[in-house]
């Protein structure tokens, strides 16, 4: 009760900045999940093929990684952090507003690259500021922070669903041949049928742009609604800037200190500071450096081969699982409207929301479960669950009910894989390696590469290949995890890590989950 009362007191004293940081992560979630259900409408809008539109995912994920690194530049002062959050959240609203006017896939990819930079900056800055405010008590606030990611990702497909096109995406006055081709495109949606079209969509001659009131442009209203919903977020950051007297129009009457710094000065007992007592993100920890600095450390020269093998195999597991998360959320809508399922567009639009909803639920459930179960066991259950779920979806590929149940199951199993793997790897290396840096990089690259790969295979082989890819990537993740267990057994034993340090590592792992 004393601890709960102290945390409640901290929240009351830092209520406005805490709500602001939570709200910017809502923007992050809103922007991460809307591409999947709107993919086919955006294809009609940009007259592009599936491999071409897949570059939009690639540009977003690549710039998200770059934005995460860029966000570290703005974390030094409160003023820089808040202005970075204001700019990033405002940029997301602008991106939503501009997307309906992107008639070329290259322009759309550039706009989504800007959104990726903004999302990466939000990811780094909001996490750092919350930890800086609450320090040892930051774990519960970080969990809520990442809950807002799932909430935003759950909401955006629901907003888009009423505006998804059910009818012809070509103009009504097109020729009979064009009408027939378009009808086949929207009814069968079998992208790999070479007898239907030998040329990619981008090379077709369209009679003109879709009409203003046509089905091809109705999704524009969804983007504008999301832009309006997100608009209060930069306004909230602006209000916090005003409260902290960081606006140029406000006189600076006091030093620019974080409210958490003032709170620490008031409540901290006068004792000598121990670096080991600092939160994980403020300790001098090699695993939290950038990738280049981590790989250049001189103390890695004498490390055994198992040390490097653990880093590589753990990164490959997350390469597969995080890549599956991105690819499934991006293409499950396209898969559902294809044969053999031929699910209606409105019904299929709920699949990304269901997926992200169960990811959010899984993240909440993993909090109490992780205190009773070892990270290695959680990862094993998650990876096996992913493989089994894809196998069931493949066997019952003609059953719509199994698609919805399997989507929910995948969301649960994939939700806690990242933090559990990170905690297990850090624990295996006794917090002396570069696990955090390597694993975060591997997961980000996996999201980029697998989305591009699945999109290309989907286009060439048809919708059935979507589930086959899931089974293959899931089996690869399981294989890499077995190799990780083997290399962990081969790794030289070191003095055991205290339970308190291990729990801190798990909390830190959760803070990196997207």
TrEMBL record:
One of its GO terms (molecular function) is transmembrane transporter activity. InterPro entries: MFS (IPR011701), MFS_trans_sf (IPR036259). The keyword Membrane applies. Keywords: Membrane, Transmembrane, Transmembrane helix. One of its GO terms (cellular component) is membrane. It is found in: Membrane. Its main location: membrane. It comes from the Eukaryota. It is a multi-pass membrane protein. The chain crosses the membrane at residues 21-40, 52-74, 81-101, 107-126, 138-160, 221-241, 307-335, 347-365, 377-396, 402-424, 436-458, 464-487. Belongs to the major facilitator superfamily. This is Major facilitator superfamily domain-containing protein 4A. It comes from Sapajus apella (Brown-capped capuchin).
């Amino acid at each position: 009760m004393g601890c709960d009362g102290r945390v409640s007191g901290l929240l009351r004293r830092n209520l406005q900045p805490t709500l602001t940081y939570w709200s910017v992560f809502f923007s992050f979630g809103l922007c991460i999940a809307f591409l999947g259900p709107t993919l086919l409408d955006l294809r009609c809008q940009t007259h592009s093929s599936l491999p071409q539109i897949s570059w939009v995912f690639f540009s977003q994920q690549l710039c998200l990684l770059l934005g995460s690194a860029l966000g570290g530049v703005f974390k030094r002062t409160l003023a820089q952090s808040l202005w970075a959050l204001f700019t990033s959240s405002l940029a997301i609203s602008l991106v939503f507003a501009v997307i309906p006017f992107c008639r070329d896939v290259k322009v759309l990819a550039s706009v989504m690259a800007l959104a990726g930079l903004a999302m990466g900056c939000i990811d780094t800055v909001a996490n750092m500021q919350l930890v800086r405010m609450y320090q040892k008590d930051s774990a519960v606030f970080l969990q809520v922070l990442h809950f807002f990611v799932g909430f935003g990702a759950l909401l955006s497909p629901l907003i888009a669903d009423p505006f998804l096109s059910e009818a012809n995406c070509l103009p009504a006055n097109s020729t009979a041949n064009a009408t027939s081709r378009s009808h086949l495109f929207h009814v069968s949606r079998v992208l790999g049928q070479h007898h239907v079209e030998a040329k990619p969509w981008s090379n077709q001659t369209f009679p003109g742009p879709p009409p203003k009131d046509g089905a091809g442009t109705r999704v524009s209203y969804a983007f504008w609604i999301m832009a309006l919903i997100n608009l209060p977020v930069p306004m909230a950051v602006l209000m916090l800037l005003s409260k902290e007297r960081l606006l140029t129009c406000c006189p600076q009457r006091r030093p620019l200190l974080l409210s958490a710094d003032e709170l620490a000065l008031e409540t901290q007992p006068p004792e000598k500071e121990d670096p080991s007592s600092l939160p994980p993100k403020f300790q001098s920890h090699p695993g939290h450096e950038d990738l280049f600095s981590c790989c250049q450390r001189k103390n890695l020269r004498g490390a055994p081969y198992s040390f490097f093998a653990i880093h590589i195999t753990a990164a490959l597991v997350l390469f597969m699982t995080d890549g599956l998360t991105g690819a499934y959320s991006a293409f499950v809508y396209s898969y559902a409207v294809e044969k053999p399922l031929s699910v209606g567009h409105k019904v299929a639009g709920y699949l990304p929301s269901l997926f992200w909803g169960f990811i959010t639920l899984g993240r909440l459930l993993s909090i109490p479960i992780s205190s009773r179960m070892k990270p290695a066991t959680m990862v094993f259950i998650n990876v096996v669950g992913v493989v089994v779920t894809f196998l069931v979806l493949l066997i019952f590929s003609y059953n719509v009910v199994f698609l919805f149940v399997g989507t929910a199951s995948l969301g649960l199993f994939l939700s806690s894989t990242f933090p559990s793997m990170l905690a297990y790897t850090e624990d295996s290396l006794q917090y002396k390696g570069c696990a955090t840096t390597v694993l975060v990089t591997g997961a980000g690259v996996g999201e980029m590469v697998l989305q591009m790969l699945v999109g290309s295979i989907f286009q060439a082989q048809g919708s059935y290949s979507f589930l086959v890819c899931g089974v293959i990537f899931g089996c690869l993740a399981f294989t890499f995890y077995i190799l990780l267990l083997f290399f962990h057994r081969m790794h030289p034993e070191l003095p055991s890590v205290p339970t308190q340090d291990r729990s801190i590592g798990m909390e830190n792992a959760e803070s990196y989950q997207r």
